[in-house]
Predict the 3D structure of the following.
Amino acid sequence: MAHENILVVEDERDIQELVRYNLGKEGYTVQCVGTGEEALRAVRSAPPDLVVLDLMLPGLDGLEVCRKLKSEASTGQVPIIMLTAKGEEADIVAGLELGADDYIAKPFSPRVLLARLRAVLRRSTTKLAEPDATVKIHGLVIHPGRHEVLFEGQPVPLTRTEFRVLHFLAGRPGWVFTRYQIADSVHDGDVMVTDRSIDVQIVGLRKKLGEAGRYVETVRGVGYRFKE
């Protein structure tokens, strides 16, 4: 059974109770608050293991709560799952760029929330790939020191930018990143990478990876992730 502490920030009482009941049934300790101001006080006083954060809140909205929490050293590592209105792609992108870890569109199934919550908690306790760490996943071996990629033992020739995009995504499997986040992560002084050019890099990367290209997934309206 789980024992993690979950903070639910949601102003609709019925959704609060739905989440509280379903998470509590799985062994999570759940605290519910209804405003952004209460959320900030709660997290700052006793950081939970994860925050489920509705973006549409009275007063201080969810995006501002996310920005504040992620910008502070004491709360920046707390994972956040956003609850968003269906189809609000702009809010999803904004939240991810502020550092949120995942999102769920309303209305949502409690089973989906539990699955996403478990995945985010699992990722938050797994060390991310260091810039020079070798990544091994789905038959791929990505070796930064050698600038080498092998798929099932066979070399895959990539450009420097394609290599950086692959290493960044594969080192964080399951995480969704916007084009801006990917471009920012692979930028260096010699190569100019824009968020628009990331689509081109992804197309080239998938083609060169062959069968392994299917692991680089498109998240419509948001960006890309590497299959977990």
In short: The first strand starts at residue 5 and ends at 9. The CA atoms of residues 138 and 174 lie 13 Å apart. DSSP finds eight helices and twelve strands in the chain.
